[in-house]
Amino acid sequence: GAVVSQHPSRVICKSGTSVKIECRSLDFQATTMFWYRQFPKQSLMLMATSNEGSKATYEQGVEKDKFLINHASLTLSTLTVTSAHPEDSSFYICSARRTSGGVRTDTQYFGPGTRLTVL
Amino acid sequence: KQEVTQIPAALSVPEGENLVLNCSFTDSAIYNLQWFRQDPGKGLTSLLLIQSSQREQTSGRLNASLDKSSGRSTLYIAASQPGDSATYLCAVRHGNKLVFGAGTILRVKS
User: Fold this and answer.
1) Any chain A CB within 8 A of the CB of B79?
2) Residue B82 phi/psi, 5° resolution?
3) Could you give the percent of chain B with pLDDT greater than 70?
4) pLDDT at B12 over 70
5) Residue of B2, B44, B106 to mutate, testing the A interface (most A Cβ within 10 Å of its Cβ)
6) Using CB atoms, which residue from A49, A107, A113 is nearest to B96?
7) Strands, E, within B8-109: which ranges?
8) Contact criterion met (CB below 8 Å) for B100 and A43
9) For residue A42, which residues of chain B lie inside 8 Å, CB to CB?
């Protein structure tokens, strides 16, 4: 089955530093990747949609200058949390929509998530 | 704006019981509906995907139904096992996005 990996799985950083999270589709191409944020005991909230080779589309209320997204290839998207603060502590999950033979399919595959703790 | 609601929020059952999880959505203009499983501190595992033109999908002990016109889906789990304990999330694809419900926390007691 399709596999999506995230790195790192856990990160603890000091307030004011920047953290980069990588999302890779290991065995398929993904023209579209999604970044979600999940607070404890709550559902996933879409932060942004990342398209390969173009700028990400951010959801309302998400600061694009704080959450930098780069989708440089068909298998890699990165989320950088800049100048992190304690309120940015959360579980970040990426997802990739599979593209097969140039055709976008329906199923989204999710990464295992990254737990960010900002001290 | 599409909103997804899941009932109940939590459910505790003895092993072996059959159970039903409910999902409702406000806008019937969906592309598909997906049920996911999430274990604590982990990512999501896709269980079943139902296209908008379909009525149900089955996988092993799981059966999901979709009534698009009424904005409802159910996930039926047969002969529940302790290993089924997890959070179950329902999501509808609305436009290019997945909109998630808050989930049902299931605990199956041995």
Assistant:
1) no
2) -55, -30
3) 100
4) yes
5) B44
6) A49
7) 10-14, 19-25, 32-38, 44-51, 56-59, 62-67, 72-77, 86-94, 97-100, 104-109
8) yes
9) 102
